[in-house]
């Protein structure tokens, strides 16, 4: 959304440049090159195939004819490794060169130890030397550096395949409510303490709405659900960035009890608009644009939330996916895997801005952010309305619109009459489209304001089912 642009211009990923002290000078890997001279075949999946990326940079460990290096993930077989059991340890064999990873002195047995979040140390079982990421983003071997340079994320290989789309039939002909429930340093506690999820669910049910979409956070650097992966990437008071109670899961449970489906709004990366800028640096992009390095680190964050919510939520609306910030279909591929970790059937859309057309090939429905759903002219003139021709676009994406009741997002006013909003909702849903309305809420009770509720109830009372 437009107001998110200002804060996301500063950042898309949480990562601090923590000071590191070395016990000894690490031994460099055989090469410090970042890009191989040859193009290798694409990555493929197998039971033992893994990709290994650095917590310090988000870059993956790679081996080619140029030697061992760290580079940006591009779905290549040279960036993947078979991890095989061997004599109480493992060997790590590149799937392209078929060479085993050694510690620079020929020793190829390794011990992998994971922390609570899933970041691994990779230590040679014979010499005790660690696989490290140096400050100049090159692989090396030596004693621990006591920081992010020591840690690696080891996971099954992500391949850039034809997208597998989730079923969006349940969205067709439906309508609902959206809420900018965005915590900040002054509200992170009050939201958890005051937010009455049961009362909110009663409001939504009384209006007859089908879907409720709520934000886990946006551009403040504070979040309505704890995220261990995010916290692991922070240096400054990570626990203070999260609500003490999982507000989103509580909402989803209450919505389910009244027959309302829950979706979650999240962002394409963490902002830097927080007190400690050191927590929010891009790992490899001086221009502060998203790239595959930052995307892999943010993958761990999205995956954590997805596993937390599981099947309690039915979809994701991801903001800040601007092409001019570097967002690509390949990044959408990575995020899609993360977002479906907890619910393989979750529907996903990636927001390019005010745009009601298909965007990323990996999305299932259109984000459909719209400021003027009833057109620029007379709002009563139906010829000006932005309406679907059918439930789906030619590429199969579900027609979906998100717009605001008020003059702007997160406002408690209503700019059109209840009759117009009702007629518009019926016009969208009769064609199989889906529309959600951003309705302002009372900042003390965190319940929807009465002005918006009157309109919502009117829409529900005058629904035309098809």
Question: How many E-type strands?
Answer: 18
Morphology call? elongated
Which band does the percent of strand residues land in?
A: 15-25%
Q: Tell me the CATH superfamily of the largest domain.
A: Glycosidases
> Which H/E pattern describes the elements?
HEEEEEEEEEEEEHHEHHEHEHEEHEH
Q: Structural class, please?
A: alpha/beta
**Total helical segments:** 9
Q: Given this structure, which CATH class of the largest domain is correct?
A: Alpha Beta
Q: In CATH terms, what is the architecture of the largest domain?
A: Alpha-Beta Barrel
Query: How many individual domains?
Result: 2
The pLDDT mean sits at: 88
Biggest β-sheet: strands ordered side by side in the sheet? 16-15-14-13-12-18-17
Provide key terms for this protein.
466 residues, TIM Barrel, Trefoil (Acidic Fibroblast Growth Factor, subunit A)
